[in-house]
# Entry
Amino acid sequence: MGLWQVFIEQFLFLLYHPIYLFLIIVYALNCNILESICLTEINFQINIFFDNKGFTMNIKIERLSKDQINEMGINNWPIWTKEVSKFDWFYDSSEQCLILEGKIIVKHNEGELEINSGDFVTFPKGLKCVWNVIEPVRKHYNFE
# Structure
């Protein structure tokens, strides 16, 4: 399916479901990302806000087996550490990370998530959140 075909389908969806368009605009204004949208990014930006359930930033938390960790080469990814702290963060690209140690509460517009040692987390591009590091963190990470 071509980029324009996907764009037209999503545009028609928004046309017939104006509440979603309103929510995207409100969210985009809140995240100050409207300035960064250009014609070639519209499809990608719309996809950030939608999945099969509707309006969501779709943070994914999983538990991976040792085989999955080895297959993905996660042990070769860089390691990031952070002491107990609280800070704002904006994902200008998506990130995958495996939490080796620590506990974090991530607050975003849709609520908050608790992330613990052993969790494999995928943060989507465009996410604006607050990290509250409860226990010192050590993680493997990869930005896409």
Remarks:
- Confidence is low (pLDDT under 50) at residues 34-56.
- The chain has two domains: 3-55, 60-143.
